[in-house]
Request: fold
Amino acid sequence: MRSELFSADNLEKESAQPGLRLQNSKLLKAELNGDFLARTGSMVAYQGQVKFEALGSGGLGKFLKQKLTGEGVPLMRVRGQGDVFLADNAADIHLIDLEPGDSLSINGSNVLAFDSSLSYDIKVVSGAGMMSNAGLFNCVFTGAGRIAVTTHGTPVVLNVDAPTYVDPQAAIAWSASLQTGFHRAEQFSFGNLLGRSTGERFTMSFSGQGFVIVQPSEVPPGGLAGAGNGSSSSKSGGGILENLFDD
Reply:
């Protein structure tokens, strides 16, 4: 049998070391000898003795936060020995290695899989008092280990060496040490009264030392805290939840 389908580029890539690695730009391979965590429903194939255990959002505390905020990562624990292949609607996959002392804030809808050595929590995005159409809660990862994130298209990594503004729906991840806020990008004018809009009502602002990963797509997040309609109830709700979630 002959076909370009059987070229070396498409054959399974083998490694002597267990862990998360790319099979290709849209397919993650986990060479499993122990366990790791992955987004529920992301498995597309596996070989060997592998078990899948649903975890919800990763524990009771995180489950309650997800129910209140609509954010988080619906997780499953994958354990055993074998090879597991993961994907998310043909999105591009990127690997990030966290080292001790690192802390990374990631949009929960962009988390595909991560080593069980990493820990995470759902945090209020600082400065989110001005509501927008983006999620106001992100997952903050700490510890040492590897995490796989997805993007819609090839991203750009911006070095924050000057005040930086990003569409909230395009911001995938950023250094957790950065100061964040929300900035009104579109000024109120007579044109607004006539229904005209630039489509850029709010931007997320970043300052400090670090980086922001931006995807070339404005995909609505998986969940919202408040409807993003700028109502007083939504604004007050953000403050209540922020106090609730503070460690």
